[in-house]
Specification:
heterodimer, A: 261 residues, mainly alpha, Helix Hairpins, Four Helix Bundle (Hemerythrin (Met), subunit A), 75% helix, globular, B: 113 residues, 2 helices, elongated
């Protein structure tokens, strides 16, 4: 049987990058078709293909790393670089929306009444639900750190408890935000205030849902004994992502909710 | 193939002992990293979750002071923008539309009350 004389992972040929690309094409063109021709078929097909791609690609990575031993230290180092670079790209993504917010709010135009918030806009009180949301996410940062140390100290039950608590806090945040979206006296169509508010907080909320899902997958894997005290990079990546989501919220809270009111 | 697997099974516990030893050695050097999980557990239940509870109480109390008056509707040109209809429903309602607090460009649905 052939043996590799290096510590790296030469990945087997895989169809998932192609199906992912096709999914991206179907979702983008599907969005345009929805807007112009009132049909959601293409977009729905794209979404289904995306979900299948993600499930199967990440399942394969878990097989390669956890069950087949391909994630040697150098390979893990590469995965760490990858996750850090990805999160960095997301930071720039949000930077754009903060730029848009500050562009409009630092020099409000006469059409808005020359003030921020614009005339007629009733902003949310930053010291009600938004403050609670801040406490919820900060608390989840503490519980995810508890989970991490529990993994490293081989405390199986505590890891499961701490991870579950983190995920529940994530769900609580999402539920609170959904309620806020429904109760808000302004909508996305209320000028540049509505646009900047809902696009920035909306994308953040999407990232909370993604992060919660990532953590939930980690919980399932922890229950199934995938992680060891020395090797649990999937969990670390999820924790990094979760901290990133928390930090973005802090910036949103201070800029849009607090200063912007 | 079977020999390699057997060798692996013998080596594994040995490797674990070495790493446990190095962990105990570093415990002496770094001062009890074994305590970290307990520390964060305490922080979670004594600081983080109570803070969430306090904020929940604060929110609840503040909500009670709210008037449930519908805000007055003035048809400002820079609000309730409809350059293009929404791609759902009748195209005139936002995704999280709440008829009690979100007026349409023509005013609150069902008239003011």
């Amino acid at each position: 049987m052939a043996r590799q004389a290096h510590a790296y992972h030469m990945v087997d040929p895989s169809p998932w990058p192609l199906t992912g690309a096709v999914a991206a094409l179907l979702m983008t063109s599907g969005l345009a078709v929805w807007f112009h021709f009132n049909s959601t078929v293409l977009m729905t097909m794209g979404l289904a293909l995306l979900l299948l791609t993600m499930y199967q690609w990440w399942r394969d990575i878990i097989r390669e790393g956890t069950f087949q031993g391909h994630h040697t230290p150098p390979v893990q180092k590469g995965l760490r670089y990858g996750m850090i670079l990805f999160i960095t790209s997301e930071v720039f993504f949000f930077l754009g929306f903060f730029w848009a917010f500050y562009h409009s709010s630092l020099a409000p135009t006469p059409e808005l009444g020359g003030c921020w918030p614009p005339t007629g806009i009733i902003p949310l009180d930053p010291f009600e639900v938004p403050l609670l949301n801040t406490a919820v996410l900060l608390a989840s940062g503490v519980t995810v750190t508890w989970a991490h140390h529990s993994i490293m100290e081989r405390e199986r039950k505590q890891t499961i408890q701490a991870l579950t608590l983190t995920i529940l806090l994530g769900f609580y945040f999402t539920a609170l935000q959904a309620m806020e979206y429904y109760e808000a006296p302004f909508t996305i169509a209320d000028g540049v205030y509505g646009s900047t508010f809902f696009v920035a907080t909306g994308f953040h909320g999407l990232h909370v849902i993604i992060g919660s899902t990532f953590l939930a997958v980690c919980l399932l894997r922890q229950i199934q004994y995938h992680f060891t005290s020395e090797h649990h990079f999937g969990f670390e990546a999820a924790a990094w992502y979760w901290h990133f989501v928390d930090v973005v919220w802090l910036f949103l809270y201070v800029s849009i909710y607090w200063w912007g009111s | 193939m079977a020999a390699a697997a057997a060798a692996g099974r013998v080596l594994q516990p040995l490797l674990r002992t070495f790493s446990a030893q190095s962990r105990q050695l570093s415990a002496a050097a770094h001062g009890e990293p074994h305590q970290a999980a307990r520390t964060w557990k305490i922080l979670s239940f004594v600081v983080a979750l109570p803070a969430v509870g306090v904020c929940m109480l604060n929110t609840y109390l503040k909500m009670q002071h709210h008037s449930h008056e519908q805000p007055e509707f003035i048809a400002y040109p820079h609000l309730q923008i409809r350059s293009k209809p929404f791609p759902w429903g009748d195209g005139n309602h936002s995704l999280f539309h709440n008829s009690h607090v979100n007026p349409l460009p023509t005013g609150y649905e069902g008239g003011e009350h």
